[in-house]
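ok new one. same drill as before - structure tokens go in, u give me an amino acid for every spot. 371 of them this time. try not to just spam alanines like last time pls lmao
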């Protein structure tokens, strides 16, 4: 009786009609995701946010317990690097330029792990030691100074009047309070120092770029704070550079173990240890955090190299002036600068005078109209 319709399903001659069941929303969503994944270019690789492997399996860098804050003896074990470079992280080669490296990060579609810190146990030990020393000095200062202030006020060895004695006690008490506030501020900074240590940095691509920072909790056992901050609000400062040209990632420095990341409208900066694992090399961070151009960062000049180039240019300029002006080149150069400044001031004065005269000049018919 019935034959197959053009709708795609057939009706049997006998029995009930069997219609395909509608697919659920979850299955449709999975099918759509798989089709979009197949449409991606073959060269595309999902950006990796997994942590790099560690040489020491017992060294858990994601733990927040007490053991993760107690350093191992001898302390040389804490200084030695333990993170293994990730094999799927791009690096600059002959066939892969630095510009391509930066653009691969800018064109990312998923979050990308940029930094992972080594163990911060020595930082915790330093923080505890400094907090204890400053707190002890604060307690000793308040204990001795307050007792001495009360005894001197009661005894009044200079036989001052009651009013003068009170004024003297207030002045001395204000000085003690000022010194105690300085000690208290230092103790607070040292105590909260570990909370500013950055454990991981992730780059979040999009129309507006973000960085996700993972830090340490103040008390052990608590979850790690995670902060998502716009990239435009973060910087390493105008005179600071991550790239040094030393070390595996070009971030090692002899006199500086860390660098700062400043957040807009915030007082305390974030602290990044230079001995951690870095995505690419240090020049990438000079571009995204130091706001340098790719062309300047590609040259691979550290801050010391830039200072050396500036000093060489200044010495060449001095040599040229000495050759042109003779022995008293400094005085002559100062005289030339003073002449140039005087000419500029004269020109500015003439322009101001001419503008004032033109403003006060009246048209010929104005006086008659007023009359």
């Amino acid at each position: 009786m019935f034959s197959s319709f053009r709708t795609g399903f057939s009706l049997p001659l006998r029995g009930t009609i069997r219609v395909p069941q509608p697919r659920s929303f979850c299955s449709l969503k999975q099918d759509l995701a798989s089709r979009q994944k197949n449409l991606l270019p073959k060269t595309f690789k999902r950006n990796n946010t997994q942590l790099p492997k560690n040489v020491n399996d017992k060294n858990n860098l994601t733990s927040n317990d007490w053991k993760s804050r107690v350093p191992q003896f001898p302390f040389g074990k804490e200084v030695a690097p333990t993170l293994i470079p990730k094999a799927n992280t791009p690096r600059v080669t002959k066939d892969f330029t630095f510009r391509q490296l930066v653009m691969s990060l800018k064109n990312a579609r998923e979050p990308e792990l940029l930094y992972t810190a080594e163990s911060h146990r020595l930082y915790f030990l330093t923080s505890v030691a400094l907090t204890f020393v400053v707190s002890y000095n604060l307690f000793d200062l308040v204990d001795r100074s307050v007792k001495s202030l009360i005894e001197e006020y009661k005894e009044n060895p200079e036989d001052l009047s009651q009013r003068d004695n009170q004024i003297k006690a207030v002045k001395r008490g204000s000085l003690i309070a000022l010194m105690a506030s300085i000690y208290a501020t230092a103790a607070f900074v040292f105590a909260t120092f570990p909370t500013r240590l950055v454990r991981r940095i992730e780059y979040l691509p999009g129309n507006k770029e973000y960085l996700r920072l993972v830090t340490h909790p103040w008390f052990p056992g608590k979850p790690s704070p995670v902060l998502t901050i716009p990239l435009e609000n973060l910087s390493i400062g105008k005179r600071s550079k991550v790239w040094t040209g030393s070390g595996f990632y070009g971030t090692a420095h002899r006199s500086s173990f860390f660098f700062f990341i400043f957040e807009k409208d915030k007082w305390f900066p974030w602290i990044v240890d230079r001995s951690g694992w870095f995505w690419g090399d240090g020049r990438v961070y000079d571009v995204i955090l130091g706001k340098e151009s790719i062309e300047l960062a590609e040259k691979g000049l550290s801050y010391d190299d830039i200072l050396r180039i500036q000093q060489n240019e200044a010495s060449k300029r001095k040599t040229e002036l000495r050759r042109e002006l003779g022995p008293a080149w400094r005085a002559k150069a100062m005289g030339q600068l003073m002449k140039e400044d005087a000419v500029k001031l004269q020109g500015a004065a003439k322009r101001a005078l001419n503008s004032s005269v033109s403003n006060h000049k009246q048209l010929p018919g104005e006086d008659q109209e007023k009359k």
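The first helix runs from residue 25 to 39. and btw Residues 1-23, 35-47, 366-371 have pLDDT under 50 and may be disordered.
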